[in-house]
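Tip: read the tokens left to right.
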């Protein structure tokens, strides 16, 4: 079905209503409700997909698309809110025709599934959406995993069906974990992939239920086809959702269904970084000071961000993060060592502390592997440990009190 043909069918079907402004009760049995699912886009925040609910609005005299994914980069303090986890998103209805045109322009696949709700369930859903869209109700704190555009659709449908979704989806096992899906959907970019591995804590490794996996719009689209509704209001027992009808198919590859570990890639990047540091550290005292200081300062800054994300933000899944054993403010010792290289050499206490920090980083990675976080722990260890080892080696070369170790 072409885009315009599908749009005409939906609009004509939904247009079987009373005249605009009529006071008589709406015959909800003739007004279909749709789950709309949008595929991946180009931007990083579009890689997880999107979804919304399409319902008839009698005041507007047309179908409206209600979605909870609205945000604005121009919002006051948007970056600060984003970094702290106090993200302010909102729900807003838009016209069906405008929404379809927007996603077609973005080259994002759009599908529709009719939801076989009873007339009273449809009415309850429309009232719920209209109330949620009011100015005093529309804003909420967005959580990429637990409270997003897709989980809000899931919760709305669950509420009007008396918990039908929760009864089936909460006991059912999902696929993978929050980390696994994040790695899968960000695998197109090595920096984003490794960055997500670095910032996500161990809570992101918990296996998902089908209910939790519905944070992904495509997963929710698949799950609703397995929900059976009981006979009610002259309707027989039936599946909640009709088969998927593709309104527009994007000219892009399908999203990956699996992801291979990037241990070898991380190791290659780590070895290259380590080799560069080693070469710079061999350029006399100044070179060694730059190599030790630059890597140590980077470790301090990244480690500080990880700790702030854990303890000072509302990013739940950035807490309990074993990456802080690799990168943390304690590496300020390396900055001290860099200064010492330019003076009389690095004291044995500072060199001992650096060796302890290297040991803690290695043992922390080993502990993460033993505790079941093997892939991410090995990837990050392969990326970071070569640089740490070079810092320890370079500081040891310029030890205090031995003229032979102080090349000029």
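Filled-in amino acids:
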């Amino acid at each position: 079905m072409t885009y315009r043909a599908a749009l005409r069918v939906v609009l004509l079907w939904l247009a079987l209503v009373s005249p605009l402004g009529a006071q008589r009760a709406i015959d909800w049995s003739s007004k279909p409700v749709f789950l709309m699912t949008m595929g991946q886009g180009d931007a990083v925040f579009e890689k997880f997909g999107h979804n919304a609910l399409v319902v008839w609005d009698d005041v507007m005299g047309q179908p409206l698309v209600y979605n909870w994914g609205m945000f604005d980069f121009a919002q006051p303090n948007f970056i600060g809110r984003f970094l702290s986890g106090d993200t302010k998103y909102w729900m807003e209805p838009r016209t069906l025709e405008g929404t379809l045109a927007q996603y077609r322009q973005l080259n994002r696949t759009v599908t529709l599934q009719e939801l076989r709700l009873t007339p009273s369930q449809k009415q309850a859903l429309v009232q719920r959406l209209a109330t949620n869209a009011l100015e005093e109700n529309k804003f909420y704190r967005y959580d990429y995993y637990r409270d997003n555009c897709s989980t809000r659709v899931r919760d709305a449908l669950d509420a009007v069906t008396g918990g039908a979704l929760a009864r089936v989806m909460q006991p059912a096992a999902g696929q993978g974990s929050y980390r696994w899906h994040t790695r899968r959907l960000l695998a197109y970019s090595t920096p984003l992939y490794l960055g997500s591995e670095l910032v996500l804590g161990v809570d992101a490794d918990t296996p998902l239920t089908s209910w939790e996996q519905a944070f992904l719009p495509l997963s929710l689209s698949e799950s609703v086809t397995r929900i059976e509704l009981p006979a009610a209001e002259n309707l027989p027992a039936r599946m909640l959702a009709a088969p998927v009808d593709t309104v527009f198919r994007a000219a892009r590859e399908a999203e990956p269904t699996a992801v291979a570990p990037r241990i070898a890639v991380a190791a290659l990047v780590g070895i290259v970084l380590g080799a560069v540091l080693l070469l710079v550290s061999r350029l006399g005292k100044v070179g060694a000071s730059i190599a030790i200081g630059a890597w140590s300062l980077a470790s301090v800054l990244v480690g500080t961000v990880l700790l702030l994300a854990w303890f000072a933000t509302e990013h739940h899944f950035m807490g309990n993060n074993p990456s802080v054993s690799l990168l943390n403010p304690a590496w300020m010792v390396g900055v001290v060592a860099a200064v010492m290289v330019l003076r009389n050499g690095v004291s044995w206490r500072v060199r001992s502390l650096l060796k302890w920090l290297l040991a803690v980083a290695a043992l922390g990675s080993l502990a993460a592997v033993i505790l079941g976080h093997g892939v991410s722990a090995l990837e990050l260890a392969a990326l970071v440990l070569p640089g740490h080892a070079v810092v320890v080696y370079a500081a040891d070369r310029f030890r205090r009190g031995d003229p032979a170790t102080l090349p000029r």
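The longest helix spans residues 284-311. Confidence is low (pLDDT under 50) at residues 15-24, 403-408.
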